[in-house]
Design a protein that fits this description.
four-stranded mixed β-sheet; six-stranded antiparallel β-sheet; single chain; 174 residues; 4 helices; alpha+beta
Length: 174
Amino acid sequence: MRLFHFSEESDIDVFVPRVKANRTDMPPVVWAIDEEHQFTFFFPRDCPRIVYTRSEGLTPEDEQRFFGTTAANKVITVETGWYERMKQTTLYRYELPPESFELFDEYAGYYISKETLVPLAVQPLPNLLDLLVELGIEVRFTPSLHPLREAIPQSSIHDFGIHRFQNAQADPRL
């Protein structure tokens, strides 16, 4: 099993467990993501995005609504305002030793460790959009994520993630 941590910082020598701002009920940990789900982190750190996957149980109506114009099985939607930053950002993928990690969320591929860790390797990842396209993921840009954020949980799509939504633009419909 390969586990990764993504950062815009290129010089992290050690990962020290810490309390995550949106998970203050948890002890300090180091977070990692598995290889299968790493694509959900091919974005600038604070970039709001919605990721969803074609999966079992999708109604014909939702198939048409969310996938009707694509052959892709995964779709990621990002606010238009993040396009230039995505093109310009280089991420650094740190591979972490997997031994001390335990599964936190199988659905999302998240793992946690209570140990201080030294990365095994670091790899720069420029051209984030190219990486996603190479994986056959459709990337969509929209002025506002709010309509999609409302629609997805009300649909038959069960495999989805809403990331960094606190950084999304205000809902222009309000």
